Amino acid sequence: MPSSTSERRPRMRAATVRRREEILRAAMVTFxxxxxxxxxxxxxxxxxxxxxxxxxxxxGSKDDLLLEVLRYRDETDVAELEPQHIPGGLEMFRHLVRTxxxxxxxxxxxxxxxxxxxxxxxxxxxxxxxFEIRYRTLRAEAVEAFEELCAARGVEAPATVRHAAAAxxxxxxxxxxxxxxxxTLVDLGEVSEFAIEAIVAAVVEPRPSPx
Length: 211
Fold this sequence. Notes:
Elements: H1 4-8, H2 14-34, H3 41-47, H4 52-59, H5 62-77, H6 90-103, H7 107-119, H8 128-153, H9 161-181, H10 188-204
Helix pairs in contact: 2-3, 2-5, 2-7, 6-8, 6-10, 7-9, 8-9, 9-10
């Protein structure tokens, strides 16, 4: 899903783009530590040496700023990919593992995502639609990746492939919360890799349940 941030950048001066990115990074810190509703624009403005009105000049409203923060966060996940999109098949799952190891080096981004995604389930939250679409899209992409992987291995994708797609996203997000609470006991990259590999193996090489 293309971001409005990316669509506007070619029409902006380089200085404006840099300024907007400074604001987005500051907003990520504030929203990540305080949440959306308790994160004041004045605090974000202070971090970047601007006024409250200056923030609104660049983003229009606090709701719009929040959505741009979320899109900016997603862009960082695929920045190293060409063409800035999650790949399919086995490469998608490898990308998810790489992302988990990368996230272990950027706690601020992970915290902002964890806080805002949890908040988004509340009534009237401005990010609810964003996360609904995001999860729906990621689940569909994971299902497609599983189907491509099974086809490449010459096996039929099991009926549980949709469960596997949802499970991978749930495991990754849940491990991020555990890691944020105690990074000394949870190795985000290694545990995520273990879980993703186990779920992928259960799809392409199903075995009788030990339970």
